[in-house]
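User: I'm writing a tutorial on reading structure tokens. Could you give me a worked example: one chain, its sequence, then its tokens, then a sentence or two explaining what the tokens reveal?
Assistant: Sure. Here is the example chain.
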Amino acid sequence: MQFEVSRYAFAISSPLGELSQRYPTVRWTARPLGRQWLVRAEGPPEDVEDALREAVRARARRVEDPRGPACLLLSPSRAESRRLLQIEAAGGTILPPLSWSEGSIIVRVAVPLPKPGADPFRPGPGTRLLSRRKSSLRDLLTEVDGGRSGPSRLSERQLSVLREAIQGGYYDVPRKAPLEHIAARLGIQRSTAEEHLRRGESILLGSFRPLLDARASGEEALPVPTPQTLETYARFSHELDLYVQMILRNGRISHVRLARSAPLPHRGHPYLARILHHIQTGQDDLTDLPVELDVSGFDREVLEALRRIPPGETITYGALARLLGHPRSARAVGNAVARNPISVVIPCHRVVPAQGGIGNYSAEGGSRTKETLLRQEGATIDPASATVRGRGRSHHRRRVLP
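And here are its predicted structure tokens:
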């Protein structure tokens, strides 16, 4: 996969921006460290010391690094956070490190090379383009972490076997596909697949050792910056009595989960606000929210079709299979629906069994959560007659979308 990597500069009021103006001989660079930045200052020793003392007076925390230059722990300003979030929401991935020069913040942004006719990436107003080049995913991985992390050390064969194992359900509990099936789909011997899989697993687990050590010592595990920046947001929904957790990858929604607890501190995002508003009111079909699906071709076909089901209406598994041109694949459709990684935004709760009733739901709360979502959208559930009454009209559950 090819990417376009661009360097942009934009002026924003912030402590580091002001310091970079007052101390032009000092080079400031930062990497994400949890919810803060680890900032390094390099340059003439006297200028660096003066700049660091001024930063500490501005509530930055100084950290001594015996292996290199002095560092600061500093929270980004609201203006900086807002602009970086806008870049990722537009589909860009910010590559560390960030830097500051003459009052401006300089960022490198990676975006997949656009397809013909696709809308170009727009970083936002007041942004100057400094440079632009093309790069492969592997080059980006090596560039960002210096080749130290697992993903950048995996061979092409290890990557393909791991990817097939994950997508095929080899790591699911219970396991959905034995290693023989993984090997057969790749056209290689079982022993070869096992060797590549074990080596790949070893590399990946080794790359997570610092995080495991941090957890074991009681320290907070910090996210490792990667070219595919993951951002997680969670808010509580009183309608569902569940947390709604949204994960963004490359500015697109890759997961929406409904759970009884939030694994990360609660944070807000415009996409998450839209999802919560829909759950609360049943309004807004969410079809314009960008999603990133890492699923097989058939699963993708099923999930994309689900987004065309209007709020308050339903379709049966069999009817959805016929709509897709696979009339004998109702069970496969059901499996694809159950694996939906983006609840609510991809409305798998609108698919019901032909024999009546609500049916199962893979999110926390099961059928009760599913019924709540349908009622919030204006549907009236009547299990006895197996009908769904929408806003002002009634539809039989075997209704097929046009």
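What the tokens reveal: Residues 256 and 342 are 4 Å apart (CA to CA). The chain has a mean pLDDT of 78.
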